[in-house]
Amino acid sequence: MTGDFVFVDELVPGIRWDSKYATWDNFTGAPVDGYLVNRIAGTVALCAALERARDAAAALGLGLLLWDGYRPQRAVDAFLRWSAAPENGRTKRRHYPNIERGEMFERGYVAARSAHSRGSTVDLTLFHLGRGGLVRMGGDHDLMDPVSHHGASGIARLETRARLQLRSVMEAAGFRAYESEWWHYTLIDEPHPETYFDVPIDAALSGRAAAVR
Asked: Model pTM?
Protein backbone atom coordinates (compact mmCIF):
# COMPACT_ATOMS: atom_id res chain seq x y z
CA MET A 1 0.00 0.00 0.00
CA THR A 2 1.29 3.44 -0.83
CA GLY A 3 1.71 6.13 1.79
CA ASP A 4 -1.35 8.06 0.65
CA PHE A 5 -3.75 5.86 2.67
CA VAL A 6 -5.00 7.48 5.86
CA PHE A 7 -7.83 7.30 8.35
CA VAL A 8 -10.54 9.58 7.03
CA ASP A 9 -11.32 11.15 10.40
CA GLU A 10 -7.75 12.50 10.57
CA LEU A 11 -8.25 14.65 7.46
CA VAL A 12 -12.01 15.28 7.38
CA PRO A 13 -13.18 16.67 10.72
CA GLY A 14 -16.90 16.77 11.33
CA ILE A 15 -17.76 13.46 9.73
CA ARG A 16 -19.23 10.55 11.66
CA TRP A 17 -18.49 6.90 11.06
CA ASP A 18 -19.47 3.38 12.04
CA SER A 19 -17.32 0.82 10.26
CA LYS A 20 -19.96 -1.88 9.87
CA TYR A 21 -17.59 -4.70 8.90
CA ALA A 22 -15.54 -4.17 12.06
CA THR A 23 -18.69 -4.96 14.07
CA TRP A 24 -21.34 -7.67 14.29
CA ASP A 25 -23.81 -5.34 12.57
CA ASN A 26 -23.35 -6.40 8.93
CA PHE A 27 -24.75 -8.96 6.50
CA THR A 28 -22.32 -11.68 7.61
CA GLY A 29 -23.36 -11.30 11.25
CA ALA A 30 -19.78 -11.03 12.55
CA PRO A 31 -16.64 -8.86 12.26
CA VAL A 32 -14.99 -9.43 8.88
CA ASP A 33 -11.38 -10.43 8.16
CA GLY A 34 -9.14 -7.38 7.78
CA TYR A 35 -11.25 -4.98 9.87
CA LEU A 36 -9.36 -4.78 13.17
CA VAL A 37 -10.43 -1.28 14.28
CA ASN A 38 -13.68 0.62 13.89
CA ARG A 39 -12.37 3.39 11.65
CA ILE A 40 -12.75 4.30 8.00
CA ALA A 41 -9.64 4.42 5.80
CA GLY A 42 -9.03 5.64 2.27
CA THR A 43 -6.77 7.64 0.00
CA VAL A 44 -5.83 11.27 0.55
CA ALA A 45 -7.68 12.04 -2.70
CA LEU A 46 -10.81 10.42 -1.27
CA CYS A 47 -10.52 12.59 1.83
CA ALA A 48 -10.18 15.78 -0.20
CA ALA A 49 -13.36 14.93 -2.09
CA LEU A 50 -15.17 14.04 1.13
CA GLU A 51 -14.24 17.46 2.51
CA ARG A 52 -16.07 19.02 -0.43
CA ALA A 53 -19.04 16.73 0.12
CA ARG A 54 -19.07 17.52 3.85
CA ASP A 55 -19.22 21.25 3.15
CA ALA A 56 -21.97 20.87 0.55
CA ALA A 57 -24.01 18.73 2.92
CA ALA A 58 -23.50 21.20 5.77
CA ALA A 59 -25.02 23.94 3.62
CA LEU A 60 -28.20 21.81 3.64
CA GLY A 61 -28.06 21.29 7.41
CA LEU A 62 -26.77 17.76 6.93
CA GLY A 63 -23.67 15.75 7.81
CA LEU A 64 -21.99 12.62 6.45
CA LEU A 65 -21.96 9.26 8.23
CA LEU A 66 -19.54 6.73 6.70
CA TRP A 67 -20.17 2.99 6.92
CA ASP A 68 -17.22 1.72 4.86
CA GLY A 69 -14.26 2.97 2.85
CA TYR A 70 -11.12 1.04 1.97
CA ARG A 71 -11.84 -2.71 2.14
CA PRO A 72 -8.95 -5.21 2.22
CA GLN A 73 -9.08 -7.94 -0.41
CA ARG A 74 -9.07 -10.51 2.38
CA ALA A 75 -12.46 -9.12 3.49
CA VAL A 76 -13.85 -9.64 -0.01
CA ASP A 77 -12.48 -13.19 0.05
CA ALA A 78 -14.25 -13.70 3.38
CA PHE A 79 -17.52 -12.59 1.76
CA LEU A 80 -17.02 -15.23 -0.92
CA ARG A 81 -16.48 -17.96 1.68
CA TRP A 82 -19.49 -16.78 3.65
CA SER A 83 -21.70 -16.85 0.55
CA ALA A 84 -20.92 -20.56 0.08
CA ALA A 85 -21.69 -21.49 3.69
CA PRO A 86 -25.05 -22.98 4.75
CA GLU A 87 -27.81 -20.45 5.43
CA ASN A 88 -28.44 -19.82 9.15
CA GLY A 89 -31.07 -17.10 8.74
CA ARG A 90 -29.38 -14.67 11.14
CA THR A 91 -29.15 -11.72 8.78
CA LYS A 92 -31.28 -12.78 5.82
CA ARG A 93 -34.47 -10.91 6.74
CA ARG A 94 -32.65 -7.62 7.22
CA HIS A 95 -30.05 -7.72 4.46
CA TYR A 96 -31.15 -10.11 1.68
CA PRO A 97 -34.78 -11.05 2.25
CA ASN A 98 -35.63 -11.94 -1.34
CA ILE A 99 -32.45 -13.59 -2.63
CA GLU A 100 -30.08 -16.37 -1.59
CA ARG A 101 -26.55 -15.74 -0.37
CA GLY A 102 -24.84 -16.71 -3.60
CA GLU A 103 -27.04 -14.36 -5.61
CA MET A 104 -25.41 -11.32 -3.98
CA PHE A 105 -22.53 -11.65 -6.43
CA GLU A 106 -24.69 -12.47 -9.45
CA ARG A 107 -26.85 -9.40 -8.84
CA GLY A 108 -23.94 -7.02 -8.25
CA TYR A 109 -24.45 -6.26 -4.57
CA VAL A 110 -21.07 -7.79 -3.66
CA ALA A 111 -18.09 -8.13 -6.01
CA ALA A 112 -15.14 -10.53 -6.02
CA ARG A 113 -13.02 -7.51 -6.97
CA SER A 114 -14.45 -4.56 -5.11
CA ALA A 115 -13.90 -0.88 -5.88
CA HIS A 116 -13.58 -0.47 -2.11
CA SER A 117 -10.28 -2.36 -2.23
CA ARG A 118 -8.80 0.39 -4.41
CA GLY A 119 -9.20 2.88 -1.57
CA SER A 120 -11.43 5.57 -3.09
CA THR A 121 -14.96 4.21 -2.61
CA VAL A 122 -17.25 4.89 0.34
CA ASP A 123 -20.58 3.68 1.69
CA LEU A 124 -22.34 6.50 3.49
CA THR A 125 -25.54 8.25 4.44
CA LEU A 126 -26.71 11.63 5.75
CA PHE A 127 -27.59 12.79 9.26
CA HIS A 128 -29.24 15.95 10.56
CA LEU A 129 -26.65 18.33 11.96
CA GLY A 130 -29.11 19.91 14.36
CA ARG A 131 -30.52 16.87 16.09
CA GLY A 132 -28.07 14.16 15.06
CA GLY A 133 -30.56 11.60 13.78
CA LEU A 134 -30.06 9.79 10.50
CA VAL A 135 -31.96 10.97 7.44
CA ARG A 136 -34.54 8.41 6.34
CA MET A 137 -33.41 6.81 3.08
CA GLY A 138 -36.00 4.10 2.51
CA GLY A 139 -33.70 1.24 3.47
CA ASP A 140 -30.53 0.57 5.45
CA HIS A 141 -26.93 -0.11 4.45
CA ASP A 142 -26.46 -3.40 2.58
CA LEU A 143 -30.13 -4.08 2.01
CA MET A 144 -29.61 -6.20 -1.11
CA ASP A 145 -32.90 -5.62 -2.85
CA PRO A 146 -34.30 -3.52 -5.72
CA VAL A 147 -35.62 -1.03 -3.15
CA SER A 148 -31.97 0.02 -2.64
CA HIS A 149 -31.52 0.97 -6.30
CA HIS A 150 -31.44 4.60 -7.36
CA GLY A 151 -34.89 5.51 -8.65
CA ALA A 152 -36.52 2.65 -6.76
CA SER A 153 -40.28 2.66 -6.42
CA GLY A 154 -42.07 1.91 -3.17
CA ILE A 155 -40.30 4.42 -0.93
CA ALA A 156 -41.69 7.66 0.45
CA ARG A 157 -41.29 10.95 -1.38
CA LEU A 158 -39.07 12.39 1.37
CA GLU A 159 -36.85 9.31 1.20
CA THR A 160 -36.49 9.69 -2.56
CA ARG A 161 -35.62 13.35 -2.02
CA ALA A 162 -32.98 12.42 0.56
CA ARG A 163 -31.33 9.96 -1.82
CA LEU A 164 -31.25 12.64 -4.49
CA GLN A 165 -29.70 15.10 -2.03
CA LEU A 166 -26.94 12.63 -1.19
CA ARG A 167 -26.34 11.92 -4.87
CA SER A 168 -26.18 15.62 -5.70
CA VAL A 169 -23.71 16.29 -2.89
CA MET A 170 -21.47 13.39 -3.85
CA GLU A 171 -21.49 13.94 -7.60
CA ALA A 172 -20.70 17.63 -7.15
CA ALA A 173 -17.70 16.57 -5.03
CA GLY A 174 -16.33 14.31 -7.79
CA PHE A 175 -17.93 10.93 -7.13
CA ARG A 176 -20.01 8.63 -9.31
CA ALA A 177 -22.97 6.69 -8.01
CA TYR A 178 -23.52 2.93 -8.17
CA GLU A 179 -27.03 2.40 -9.47
CA SER A 180 -27.82 -0.69 -7.38
CA GLU A 181 -26.87 0.83 -4.01
CA TRP A 182 -27.93 4.33 -2.98
CA TRP A 183 -25.13 4.49 -0.35
CA HIS A 184 -22.17 3.54 -2.60
CA TYR A 185 -19.95 6.16 -4.31
CA THR A 186 -16.58 5.95 -6.06
CA LEU A 187 -14.21 8.83 -6.72
CA ILE A 188 -14.11 9.48 -10.48
CA ASP A 189 -10.41 10.37 -10.53
CA GLU A 190 -9.31 7.64 -8.14
CA PRO A 191 -5.52 7.37 -7.79
CA HIS A 192 -5.31 3.54 -7.94
CA PRO A 193 -7.92 2.45 -10.50
CA GLU A 194 -6.25 -0.90 -11.30
CA THR A 195 -4.87 -1.94 -7.89
CA TYR A 196 -6.64 -3.97 -5.21
CA PHE A 197 -4.96 -3.64 -1.82
CA ASP A 198 -4.88 -6.20 0.99
CA VAL A 199 -3.49 -4.43 4.04
CA PRO A 200 -5.68 -4.97 7.11
CA ILE A 201 -7.27 -1.96 8.74
CA ASP A 202 -5.54 -1.51 12.07
CA ALA A 203 -3.80 1.24 14.01
CA ALA A 204 -0.68 0.92 11.84
CA LEU A 205 -2.44 1.09 8.49
CA SER A 206 -0.66 4.02 6.82
CA GLY A 207 2.46 3.45 4.79
CA ARG A 208 2.53 -0.34 4.43
CA ALA A 209 2.68 -2.09 1.07
CA ALA A 210 0.61 -5.04 -0.10
CA ALA A 211 -1.41 -5.16 -3.28
CA VAL A 212 -3.25 -7.74 -5.32
CA ARG A 213 -3.28 -6.93 -9.02
From this structure: 0.95
**Is residue 213 assigned to a domain?**
no
**Within 10 Å of residue 86's Cβ, how many Cβ atoms?**
5
pLDDT (tens, 9 = 90+) of the chain, 213 residues, equals 556 899 999 999 999 999 999 999 999 999 999 999 999 999 999 999 999 999 999 999 999 999 999 999 999 999 999 999 999 999 999 999 999 999 999 999 999 999 999 999 999 999 999 999 999 999 999 999 999 999 999 999 999 999 999 999 999 999 999 999 999 999 999 999 999 999 999 987 865 555 554
Residue 147, C-beta contacts closer than 8 angstroms, at least 6 positions apart: 138, 139, 154, 155
Residue-range definition of the domain harbouring residue 127 = 5-206
Decide if 186 is inside a domain.
yes
Is residue 212 one of the residues assigned to a domain?
Answer: no
Can you give the CATH number for the domain in which 124 is found? 3.30.1380.10
- Domain membership of residue 102 (yes or no) is yes
Residues belonging to the active site: 181
Give the pairing type, strands 181-187 and 41-43.
unpaired
The full DSSP string for 163-212 is: HHHHHHHHHHTTEEEETTEEEEEEETT-S-TT-EE---BSTT-TT---EE
Per the structure, the count of domains in the chain is 1
Torsional class of 181: left (φ above 0), alpha (ψ -120 to 50), beta (otherwise): beta
d(CA 196, CA 188): 16
